[in-house]
Specification:
single chain, alpha+beta, Streptococcus thermophilus LMG 18311 protein like, six-stranded antiparallel sheet, 2 helices, globular
């Protein structure tokens, strides 16, 4: 009888953006116009950044973090999205890019992705 050999447990991988130099991250103060656009009864937190070639807007809506990342001429790359998430948002929380029902879909910029805080998912046994 041939013994059953379990495959080795995969080693945890680091995010791919960590294998290169970090992008330049600059925080800029919000203008009055920015505050008018983003601050409201549901959102009193606003931070604006430049990450490499992307603009990043961070708010806290209904008590949950929300990050928008955009580029002028293309979609942000996965590494740009991941780097923004891990450098700007709390590491102890879980975030996701969601595709809501069409009637709830909002996008104010052609090349923008939204990252939302979600409740932590239970790990598989």
């Amino acid at each position: 009888m041939t013994p059953i050999v379990k495959p080795p447990k995969p080693q945890p991988m680091r995010p791919s953006f960590e294998s290169r130099e970090p992008l330049k991250l600059i925080e800029r103060p919000p203008t009055e116009r920015d505050q008018t656009r983003f601050i409201n009864a549901e959102n009193s937190y606003l931070r604006l950044y430049r990450l490499g070639e992307c603009t990043v807007v961070v708010t806290k809506e209904f008590g949950k973090w929300h990050l928008s990342i955009a580029h002028r001429t293309r979609y942000p790359t996965w590494d740009e999205v991941a780097e923004a998430r891990y450098r700007i948002l709390p590491d102890s929380l879980t975030f996701a890019m969601l595709l809501p029902p069409k009637r709830e879909y909002i996008n104010l910029h052609e090349f923008c992705f939204q990252v939302h805080e979600i409740d932590h998912l239970a790990e598989n046994p």
